[in-house]
Amino acid sequence: MTQWQDLLQRASALRQAGRVAEAIQAYQQLLDVRPDLPESWYNLGWLQRQARQFEAALASYRQALDRGISEPHEVHLNRAVILSDHLHRPDDAQAELQAALALAPRYGAALLNLGNLNEDRGDRSAAAAAYRRALEVDPGNMLALARLAGVTEPVDADDPIISRLRLALADPHLDGVERADLGFALGRLLDLVGDYDGAFAAFADANAASRASCGSAFRPYDAAAHSGFVDRTIAAFPAPSGSAGNGLPERVPVFICGMFRSGSTLVEQILAGHPAIAAGGELETLPVLVRTRLQPYPEAAATANEHAIAELRQLYLRELAGIEPDKPRVTDKRPDNFLHIGLIKRLFPTAKIIHTRRNPLDNVLSLYFLQLNPEMAYSLDLEHAAHWYLEHDRLMAHWQALYPADIFDIDYDALVVDPEPVIRSALAFLGLGWSDACLDFSRRSGIVKTASVWQVRQPLHRKSSGRWRHYAHHLERVRELLGAGQSA
Question: How far is CA 228 from the centre of its chain?
Fold first, then answer.
């Protein structure tokens, strides 16, 4: 066996073993010797993507294309995902998807991604066209049907898209993922046309299907374990951060967090109208650092030395750098970063945190009606979601006691009733003056990559406040758990 074949065998073995950093180094050594191996360039790009070396991954994928890789349309799709999801370059992502479809016009994955990108842009008709094309290519593509339903506004309960979803759900051969996709889509449409009992039944079936789709890998929500995590977090951070914050950058991020479905996307979109603020969106950076660099958590975050904290800060800022760098403020709107405020204040002692709140019954119901990752198991059961809400409140009370001057609450229900005073106060909290553009958010172009993509492209309305009343007889136990004398 030649030297390069030895290197290839070693690189492949490391990749298959999940030893990402070592595999990257091995592929680089191989490609220094044999740069004419397009499949190895592809594998290097894939590994660099796992390591969050996104620019390097783009370059490696480009090498794979230039050197004649088979299935080049798949490489263009991978480049598109990096450009869209991680580097905030939607125009370049669209060009890659168009290149993929020029090579393979019936490539369903590219059509789905094109539809999703057009949703992020707020182009409902272009998104629908992409999903329809995906269904023409593969009429059995249930994800395409569910996404088409997600960009459709039904006329009434007899709308053809509702009938189409019901017919699809009647197929006994659907797998759990397909049944969940279709069920959440049907629940949304039935809610819109006022069939609230039908909607609730559809969402209940969808949540059950989501659980079943994981099979034996499903990990049920463990209320005791989560309460224990909150206990440990409070114990790990008993006092305000003592970090000196030496070498802090001028561009300290603004963190927007709280419960999912509590209005964080709306708040970010409003604030992003200010000329000084760039919208970073729902960044996964902090949870990735927690998972890969700070175990056991939260203890490792509390006890990390200043050198380690400085290194983590730079890793975080590296991913923030490409987001409208000309603007002095940038938001990180990952809602469950409320779990990590102790870490945030170690990384960025001067960070400002905007905490979004909402009527607890509306919030819990909205979680149950949203198709989240099954790993967020609390969202699949109303009582579990209520427990998560209460633990969120308990942890936030701790953070607000430690950092009263650095955490600003925004109540969603107050915001939609009278937005200007709420936003004026939030901008003053951030040390910024008023901008009329903040209230023009519904007409603003730009990318929104959350489940609230369509809501935040509408003028402010109160339709979601008090939504729980349509489902009151399904929520009696949840009202007890939340103490919902909060029934306003």
Answer: 25
